Amino acid sequence: MLGYFLGQIAFVKANIEIILIGIVVVSVLPIGIQLLRSRRTSAAATNPGASVQPQTPAPRNE
Length: 62
What we know:
Helix content: 55-70%
Distance between the termini: 85 Å
């Protein structure tokens, strides 16, 4: 019944494709975020020194 009533709204009727694409993108977004997080943590685990900046020695006063 909700689909019937939403179909009567002119904005929904004119933009149904964009609305459906938006729903799909919002649904898939958490999967993409989790994938990026897992890749970042696995890259840090395999190369632990990659995120650490090299330290230069302090100048000596002689």
